[in-house]
Amino acid sequence: MKLLPLALIACLATPAFGFDISTMSEAEREAFRAEVRSYLLDNPEVLAEAFEVLQNRQAEAEAEGDLVLVTANADDLFQDGFSFVGGNPDGDLTVVEFIDYRCGYCKKAHSQVSELVSTDGNIRYVVKEFPILGEESVRASRFAISALQVAGPEAYKKINAGFFEGFRGDITPETLTAFATSLGLDGAAIIAGMDSPDVTKVIEENHLLAQRMKISGTPTFVFGNQMLRGYAPIDHMKQLAAAARS
User: Fold this and answer.
1) In a domain, 1, yes or no
2) Which alpha helices (H) appear in 121-246, and where do they start and end?
3) Which residues have CB under 8 Å from 19's CB, separation 6+?
4) 65-91: buried (b, 16+ CB within 10 Å) or exposed (e) per residue?
5) Domain harbouring 105, CATH code
6) pLDDT given at position 56
7) Which domain holds residue 227?
8) Cα 22 from chain centroid?
9) DSSP secondary-structure letter at 218?
10) Sheet with 93-99: strands ordered across
């Protein structure tokens, strides 16, 4: 590796003089720029190293910021009293997921999350209904929340899985009724509760929480005190779970 010219190193490293490019003449500035350019062209790996350092610093800053957000909103994330809680209710790790049923990456993540929760056996899984992709997303979330409130967690679990695994077509009152019937549920009762103030409050509270958490997309996960913004394969999720526990 070519080293920076000795004169340049001395200029940069001597505290008695310091380094202030504003004190240079135009000719000195041009010479300095030429030396830096030559060094970088001869040693392009330096740029890659600098970029890696920048990425690591940004990741550390983001993780620290996420920790602050999770800590400040812990009660609303983990113990709101109205979100679906699956997996092991007494698990040693709580995983929260913000979902939209029309989100392709949520659908892709569904099987990964299901496998993680079932194989781990000690994860408490909380779902935050966060419809952001239009009116049909809102309608689907209202239907799922109403099912939880009217028929209980097992009904919600069937609907949540069904939206991701088998539901096709537009989301309308007619298709939702048929969907509920196919799952052995009372679609009319669930639809009757979709526009209730209690359902509306859940969606509003989740949107306010997402705003505080600086969440704008789905899926978004919280693993203990860590956040994962976007889809990740199960191996990465397992790593996050292990890190959260440690």
Assistant:
1) no
2) 135-151, 153-165, 173-182, 187-192, 197-212, 234-245
3) 11, 12
4) ebeebbeebeebbbebeebbbbbbeeb
5) 3.40.30.10
6) 57
7) 75-245
8) 44
9) S
10) 84-87, 123-129, 93-99, 220-223, 226-229
Please, what's the b/e burial string for 150-179 (b: 16 or more CB within 10 A of its CB; e: otherwise)? bbeeebbbbbbebbbeebeeebeeebbbeb
Closest by CA to 196, choosing from 129, 149, 244, is 149
Q: Determine contact, residues 171/139, Cβ cutoff 8 Å.
A: yes
What pLDDT does 43 receive? 79
pTM above 0.85, yes or no: no
Cβ distance 227 to 221 under 8 Å?
A: yes
Q: What is the pLDDT at residue 53? A: 64
Enumerate residue ranges in the chain where pLDDT < 50: 1-3, 6-11, 13-17
Query: Which pLDDT does position 1 carry in this prediction?
Result: 45
The pLDDT, as a whole number, for residue 23 is: 81
Q: Report the pLDDT value the prediction gives residue 32, as an integer from 0 to 100.
A: 80
- Residues 90 and 115 grouped into a single domain: yes
The last residue of a domain, from among 39, 72, 105: 72
pLDDT of 24? 80
Q: From CA 62, how far away is CA 30, in angstroms rounded?
A: 38
Within 8 A by CB and 6+ apart from 115, the residues are: 234
131 and 52 within one domain = no
The helix/strand/coil state of 132 is: coil
Rounded to an integer, what distance in angstroms lies between the CA atom of residue 230 and that of residue 63?
15
Domain C-terminal end among 72, 93, 121 = 72
